[in-house]
Amino acid sequence: MSTTERTFIAIKPDGVQRGLVGDIIARFEKRGFKLVALKLVKPDQKQLETHYEDLAKKPFYAGLVKYMGSGPIVAMVWEGLQAVKTGRVMLGATNPLDSVPGTIRGDLCIQTGRNICHGSDSVESAKKEIALWFKDEELINWDDHSAAWIY
Ligand code: RTP
How far apart are CA 15 and CA 2, in angstroms? Predict the structure, then answer.
């Protein structure tokens, strides 16, 4: 498949605290995406500053870094056909009130500053984010036998 991509998806501290980890993982599994990496991480300040460097001048930046560093996050890599774009569609709009029902944010949250999940916004950022959050050896290559029924 030429359009197979990998995307970085994170369940933010509020998603972990609210017990939404299983629900969010299940949505990616059920859609047919392949899990390539998964870990619970307590992000450090430096990692968050790098992850959000494009937003450094935004008024909400300091609050965002504080929120993201306030507890463990679940960091994941999912692979599949147009995984980056489809992952963003599954997450819903940044502001949960603009997210349609059926999306993760549209079903599970209300506020932009507590929007429970992150997804890479382009293939290029996915590559950078995967390299920031995972070591090469944490990305697992495995034969997904369900793929023949999905594609
Ligand atoms: P994400 O990176 O989390 O997938 O979100 P995104 O691309 O949809 O949105 P982006 O503009 O990159 O913002 C990153 C995260 O910053 C928080 N935010 N707070 N208070 C605010 O106005 C505000 N705006 C953005 C959200 O947690 C957003 O997901």
Answer: 33
* Helix or strand holding residue 31 (H, E): helix 21-31
HSE toward the beta carbon, residue 118, CA cutoff 13 A: 25
- The pTM of this model reads 0.96
Tell me how many helices (H) and strands (E) the chain has.
8, 4
- CA 36 to centroid of ligand 1, rounded, Å: 24
ipTM of the complex, rounded to two decimals: 0.93
Q: What is the mean pLDDT of residues 98-105?
A: 98
Q: Which residues are annotated as catalytic?
A: 118
Give the SS3 label for residue 117: strand
How far, in Å, CA of 116 to CA of 105, rounded?
A: 7
Sorted by where each begins, the domain ranges of the chain are 6-149
What does the alpha-carbon distance between residue 40 and residue 28 come to, in Å, rounded to a whole number? 17
CATH number of 6-149: 3.30.70.141
Known binder of ligand: residue 60? yes
Mutate to test the pocket of ligand 1, among 12, 54, 64 (most ligand atoms within 8 A of CB): 64
